[in-house]
Amino acid sequence: MALDGIVTRAIVSELQACIGQRISKIYQPGDHDLVFTLRGAGGGGKLLLSANPTYPRVHFTERSTLNPAEAPMFCMLMRKHCEGGVIEAISQVGMERIIHFEIRQRDELGDVSSKKIIIELMGRHSNIILTDFQTGTIIDGIHHVTPAISSYRIVMPGFAYTQPPEQNKHNPLDISRSDFLQLYRDADEEQVESEAALEEETEGSGDKSSVRENRGRSDQNRPSLNPAGWIVDTFSGISPLIAQEMVRQSAQGGDAGTASGSGEVFGQEIVTGEKLHEAFDSVMEPVRRGQFSPVIGTNAKGKLVFSAISLTLPEGRTKHYDTISRCMEDYFGDKAERDTVKQRVSDLIRFLTNERSKNIKKLANLQADLEEAGGAEEYRIRGELLFASLHMLSKGEKEVRLVNYYDEDQAEITIPLDPLLTPSDNAQRYFKKYNKYKNSLAVIEEQLEKTHEEIRYLESLLQQLDHASLNDIEEIREELVAGGYLRDRSKKGKKKKKPTRPTLQVFTSSEGVEIYVGKNNLQNEYLTNRLAGPNETWLHTKDIPGSHVVIRGEAFGDATLSEAAQLAAYFSQAKQSSSVPVDCTLIRHVRKPSGSKPGFVIYDHQRTLFVTPDDEMIKGLPSTLKS
């Protein structure tokens, strides 16, 4: 990732279209994110402000997000001070990753008041802070910073806002050629002098390893030997990715050899200050003019990177975008939500995996019992043969050989006896074993069926967690509580009435037909058993845990059917497989057996399609959330 000052400048440049627009709605879908719905000239749209410690960002978004039933306190405060307000200015602090929004709003008394929203995109220190425009006093922040966390500044209501510590770097937009070259020479000379002093000091001690170590440390700081590192340390807002791009261009523009991509040494020659400034100016000139070329590509190490400017990336696919928002939306995708989901589902996955293991072990024990009970008929035959031959037997015998009248060849069999029992009691003992195993066969077969069903159910839940959103997780947790698998951890007292209609993800096919996808058993049952019409088409992977998919409407072409089958395969356990079998039939041929597990159905009159899930195609289908 390279969310640096250049990317921030591209964002601010794009957001100038928001000036004059009104903030009509404010939502807080997660702990770190705010979504503004804008109205006004230019068409408005949805703006995402994220202080996520791993994926901080600001950009327009087209993604649909589920919002909590009860807005968090920070969201309520933002609504009070900013909802209905007009955006008057959006600016960047120098080349730092700090964006200021100036908002003008009328308060509840009708008086005009101005607020400033400060978004700091600084990794784990990222924050969204609301301040009073006139006084600079903090009204609140999405993340509080207490004196115990930082001795430099406090982010708490009532305190004056203090900017993050300055790095004392030069602004790359304002630097002249002569100043650049002077900084380059000064840094190089300073490092040479420092190296000489260190060598003189360490050579006096006779420690050669210290000499080598100090020389190596000094070389890392010399702009002539590590130009990329010097650029990052000297100029604000430039990430290592862009610094390496500058060095790469300076090397390719002269005779400095082939770029290694590491930003350290190119060939056997040193990159000169003049060549480095040419590349530096070439990269920064479009930034000065506000001309950006957002791109996503793969670097030399195979890592996916994005930039607000063009990159001379090594061989590999690159994708260009017309706006930085589309670039960031594509790059980040649902990474932030997936990370949050992983944290929230870890306990559920552990619980479901343990339960599945227990049932697999139980299945093996039941199979062993079934094999043992399979000999029930032999015990009956032994008992009847003993009764028929009581006159030939006497107490104290350990075994007896008798003709087996039930065998076609009338072969003799050996029957073990208990010498402490009478012949009659020995016969009765075999009849008791026969009745015991005969009765247990029905129980074992019933338990086998239930255990197989339990394993299928647990595997379906594990599959659903692979595709779950934050809302889906809560629905799955509630399902497990209702099924008696988990204890209800919610606070006792008056419980809120839950919505009767779950929220479903709805895709629109290339033919304009809506395709509904259930992401958990609650959604699957509502979609299949209540929402869909009898003549609408239902799809599901054949004998593989997955989502229920319904094509809403009876008139559609092969393209819609193929895309629906793709969705069924994608939202299943076979997502990474090829030629996935997907059954499709009409809803009227799908039914839920009485007493079966949630989400389980049987169906007939199906036909099977074979598809290979195409990630790009599915991401290209428009989708929204509906309840």
End-to-end CA span: 35 Å
Number of strand elements: 23
CATH superfamily of the domain at 5-160: ibrinogen binding protein from staphylococcus aureus domain
Could you name the CATH topology of the domain at 5-160?
ibrinogen binding protein from staphylococcus aureus fold
Determine Rg (CA atoms, Å). Answer: 36 Å
Give the CA-based shape.
elongated
Account of the 3D structure:
The structure is a single chain. With 627 residues, this protein is of the alpha+beta class. Among the domains are: 5-160, ibrinogen binding protein from staphylococcus aureus domain (ibrinogen binding protein from staphylococcus aureus fold, Roll), CATH 2.30.310; 343-466, Helix Hairpins (Orthogonal Bundle); 504-626, no CATH class. It has 15 helices and 23 strands. It has helices at 5-15, 73-82, 177-205, 208-221, 227-234, 240-253, 273-289, 324-332, 335-373, 376-388, 423-466, 470-482, 521-531, 558-570, 615-620; strands at 22-27, 33-39, 45-50, 57-61, 86-92, 98-106, 112-120, 127-132, 138-141, 295-298, 304-307, 319-320, 399-403, 412-416, 504-508, 514-517, 537-541, 549-551, 580-586, 590-591, 602-603, 607-611, 623-626. Strands 22-19-17-18-16-15-23 form a seven-stranded antiparallel β-sheet, with helices on both faces. Strands 5-6-7-8-9 form a five-stranded antiparallel β-sheet, with helices on one face. The protein has a four-stranded antiparallel β-sheet with strand order 1-2-3-4. A hairpin with a 5-residue loop joins strand 6 (98-106) and strand 7. The protein is elongated, with a radius of gyration of 36 Å. Mean pLDDT is 86; it is low at 254-269.
